[in-house]
Give the backbone structure.
Amino acid sequence: MSFKDKILNNQSPWGTPPGGGGPNGNGSGTRREPPSLDDIIKNFQKTINKFSGGKSGGSRPFVLGFIILVLLYVASGLYRVLPDEQGVVLRFGKYVHTTQPGLHYHLPMPFERVLTPKVTKVNRVDVGFRPASDSGRSTGGVGNVPEESLMLTGDENIVDINYSVFWVIKDAQKFLFNIQSPVETVKATSETAMREVIAKNNIQTILTEGRASIEVEVQEITQQILDEYGSGIQITQVQTQQADPPAQVIDAFRDVQAARADRERSKNEAEAYANDVIPRARGEAEQVLQQAEAYKKEVVAKAEGEASRFLAIYNEYKNAKQVTQERMYLETMEKVLADIDKVIIDKNSGSGVVPYLPLPELKKSGAQN
């Protein structure tokens, strides 16, 4: 019975019915032992020989080799995407889909192939300078590129600026198919953005406190241009390495900077002196004004008091002229003779009375006692 007949009769390739035909699981009603490994191998070889025309000998290795080659060809479609990569599957050179990290399969060559760019690697592009390693020199140092680094500022000065652009791949498909030279594209767009930003600022801002804002603005403009290109690139940072005047005038510029620093120092000293003297002068002036105001009030109050006193005395004088005159005389003499030694002599004293009263002597005697 041929292999084809066995299949048609619902039998296995090894000669045993898959379901059994008798009470013991076979057609004859007797139990049959399962085939050994050698029998399985021999039956498999016979089957291959039947497919190859029933010939054995020289054609057998060829068939086995052909089967192995077919298996290897089919297995060549297996590919692995690492954690820092994205897989881009191409079918006859046309983009099909993107695969994430892991083990995947695609149709073998020449039907499909896979590109696996690294999407987490941070790339760097230097503008305005080249490290010594890029120039082929073994010694340390940096090579300046004037055609890239010299830029015109908003106040019509020239600045020599070197900076680095850091970027990663955010879309592997766009990165591979939309731009031809990623490094040159990033370099050109960042240089365009930097020249635009430098042209809006004066040189003093660029060299001092404005670097951080310039870096942020350049990053935003560069990212906007790359997004318009559909580059699939993400700018992570723009870092200024150096910002100086051109080498030909840097000494003169430093002299100007020193003069400006001296001017600022003198200005600050003058402002400090003014801040010390002016408040003090204002305080003294305010003090004088307050003293004058107090004196004014004192004089006015005293004049008003004297006038009131005069009016009061005048009213009393009208009522009792003799008594008022006597009281006024005594008060006046009290004030006039207040600080001198006084002796009272009563010319109208009678006999037996001493007409002389030495008041200072009595005061001294009282003090000694």
The two ends are 170 Å apart (CA to CA). Residues 64 and 214 are 69 Å apart (CA to CA). Confidence is low (pLDDT under 50) at residues 1-31, 136-140. DSSP finds eleven helices and 13 strands in the chain.
